[in-house]
Amino acid sequence: MDILKIATAGSVDDGKSTLIGRILYDTKSLTEDKLEAIEQKSKQRGFDYLDFSLATDGLIAEREQGITIDVAHIYFSTPTKSYIIADTPGHIEYTRNMVTGASNAQASIVLIDARKGVIEQTYRHFFINNLLRIKEVVIAVNKMDLVDYSEEKFNEIKSEIEYLASKSSYQKQQVTFIPLSALKGDNVVQPSVNMDWYKGETLLQHLEDLTLDDVEEVSKVRFPIQTVIRPKTEKHHDFRGYAGKIYGGDLTVGDAVTVLPSKTTSKIKEIHFFDKSYASASRGSAVTITLEDNINISRGDMLVKPDEEPRIEKQISATICWMDKTPLSSNTKYVLKHGVKDVQAKVTEISSIINTDFSGKEESPSAIVLNQIGEIELKLSKPLFFDSYQTNKATGTFILIDPKTNATSGVGFIK
């Protein structure tokens, strides 16, 4: 795998930004001017060490308060892989930011302060990783230097998380436990000499060893059409290509496909990527496809394999993470954005609010407020073709947009 997308999570002061800064420093991914700025700022604050959190906290308010407020995306590479890390906030009032940052992640790192152990925010972050069906989760027990590198303390935290995992509805999740010190560098990039009782990999070694099969689930092929390509050149006068990104599985020249919503059928004639043609393309590839038959296809249509059609309905049940200061209430109308398609949607029922500590649900609430996660029923103005989020993440998610403000009010996961 060439690129791995990672989300970080953890409570305030658990050391997310410091951990990322340590990775950047130890992999020599910091530019000289950035490193000099960190050294200078650390000295100004009277530290006798480098404050690696300065490498990621970009907003002035973040630097002044020493907290992460918004999602920051950090890019770095090793000789074998490239990484995109979404550094998400730890405060409970920024839950929506964490969901946003983790929504495209293939793996997640949940930090726990070894001194504090498992706290309320740990439950919340672990729950969100389950909700988003992030297959590979690393529990990074940080600040081990402040508990004398205690194996007993590490195992205590590990047992609590394993108990949480046993209550999860997503049993395909792989949870890995790593004791480390982001500040001192123990088990981040280099093995720790202070924890000889730990026989596992360092954090970076573990990430380096992950493959596409480790972090993604194979499902039915979905190819939503982003745009129809019709070049205005003499050489390609008759060219009609359909551009988009492949989700779920692979496509090969000669594969039979069904076009939705028309349900007409054809076969793949060519697969293009820029100026080259390929016999096949794997999931995650952004390509242009041509068909053997001249079919009327528009932006928003979808190519699927025969006998693998998604659900086509005007009513959906979904789990929603509410991101708007205006509470969600029944009979409210929104614009539902599903891929490139927009439809009018009405909230017909609020079924429950889900407690993110795995303690159950609050049935039939009057509303869902900012940062709460609940279950709702929606009625749509026209049919959508979709899958459940458990089956296919790409076609099982949507956002709700307030038509009055154009603000993104919620992100939904179809049941």
Describe the structure.
19% of the residues lie in helices and 35% in strands. The protein has 3 domains: 3-215, Rossmann fold (3-Layer(aba) Sandwich); 223-304, Elongation Factor Tu (Ef-tu), domain 3 (Beta Barrel), CATH 2.40.30.10; 311-414, Translation factors (Elongation Factor Tu (Ef-tu), domain 3, Beta Barrel), CATH 2.40.30.10. With 415 residues, the chain is an alpha+beta fold. The strands form 4 sheets. Strands 7, 8, 9, 11, 12, 13, 15 and 16 form an 8-stranded antiparallel beta sheet that branches.
By CATH, the architecture of the largest domain is named 3-Layer(aba) Sandwich
Number of helices: 8
**Biggest sheet descriptor:** 8 strands, antiparallel
The average pLDDT is 88
Rg for CA atoms? 23 Å
Q: What is the name of the CATH topology of the largest domain?
A: Rossmann fold
Q: What's the CATH superfamily of the largest domain, by name?
A: P-loop containing nucleotide triphosphate hydrolases
Compute the separation of the termini in Å: 30 Å
Provide tags for this entry.
415 residues, alpha+beta, Rossmann fold, Elongation Factor Tu (Ef-tu), domain 3, 3 domains
Short structural description:
The protein is of the alpha+beta class and 415 residues long.
